[in-house]
């Protein structure tokens, strides 16, 4: 049995990023010690890779290829490993099927172990369903808005889009980054922190949001949804409230 730690590095503007990485590393080692687990290696992912699914990240891909039945992973929390509930749901289900444990420090348990897995998978399924529904509605509203604008008439192309046959269409790689940026902004993060998370200059992030706000201003449905989401309080932290199996 091999046990791996997995961290997502974060480098704040005050230059204390290395301190935060070491703090997370210490939390992983302390959790392993309390749980009677011996760490073989701790993998640290670059912050700019945090917007990608785990299997598409450099260290995430290496981690998944190294795992064998009976192995375990320790990570600070969901947001350290996964950019979305859908990626979390698919990965947790795959790890469970391969008899690999996934210990999340913020939840205080192995989320692949019964009965914890039923609770966590149920929550992730609900969140993934909500994500798909919201994205589908936003995409429909955005397409209607773009169609109402007619052909692209020159000037800079908005981030997240490309010009095809004179019209704006979503550009998959940039569109995913744009979704991540909006999600981080809705969590209350500033431009500097968002820039670090997605690997773009802060000035570029500010310009993207400025142009997006003007675009959304002409799209009442999506603009109102974003205003409501920004005004709503954050969801309470989750924790495993069931006893682990012996």
UniProtKB/TrEMBL annotation:
It comes from the Bacteria. One of its GO terms (molecular function) is DNA binding. SUPFAM superfamilies: Resolvase-like. Coiled coil: none annotated. Residues 158-246 form the Recombinase domain. Keywords: DNA recombination, DNA-binding. It comes from Enterovirga aerilata. The lineage of its organism: Bacteria, Pseudomonadati, Pseudomonadota, Alphaproteobacteria, Hyphomicrobiales. InterPro entries: DNA_bind_recomb_sf, DNA_bind_recombinase_dom, Resolv_N, Resolvase-like_N_sf, SSR_resolvase. Residues 226-246 are annotated as: Disordered. This is Recombinase family protein. Pfam families: Resolvase. Residues 234-246 have a biased composition (Polar residues).
């Amino acid at each position: 049995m091999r046990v791996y730690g997995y961290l997502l590095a974060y480098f704040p503007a005050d230059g204390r990023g290395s301190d935060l990485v070491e703090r997370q590393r210490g939390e992983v080692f302390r959790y392993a010690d309390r749980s009677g687990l011996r760490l073989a290696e701790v993998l640290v992912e670059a912050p700019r890779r945090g917007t990608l699914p785990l299997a598409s990240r450099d260290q995430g891909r290496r981690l998944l290829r190294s795992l064998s039945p009976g192995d375990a992973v320790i990570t600070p929390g969901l947001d350290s490993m996964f950019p979305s509930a859908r990626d979390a749901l698919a990965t947790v289900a795959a790890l469970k099927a391969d008899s690999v444990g996934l210990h999340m420090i913020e939840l205080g348990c192995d989320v692949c172990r019964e009965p914890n897995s039923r609770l966590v998978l149920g929550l992730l399924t609900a969140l993934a369903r909500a994500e798909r529904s919201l994205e589908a509605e936003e995409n429909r509203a955005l397409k209607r808005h773009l169609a109402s604008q007619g052909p692209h008439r020159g000037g800079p192309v908005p981030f997240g889009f490309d010009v095809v046959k004179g019209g704006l269409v979503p550009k998959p790689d940039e569109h995913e980054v744009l979704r991540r940026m909006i999600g981080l902004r809705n969590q209350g993060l500033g431009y500097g922190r968002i820039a670090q998370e997605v690997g773009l200059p802060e000035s570029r992030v500010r310009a993207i949001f400025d142009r997006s706000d003007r675009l959304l201003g002409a799209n009442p449905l999506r603009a109102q949804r974003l205003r409501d989401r920004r005004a709503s309080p954050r969801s309470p932290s989750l924790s495993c409230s069931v006893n682990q199996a012996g």
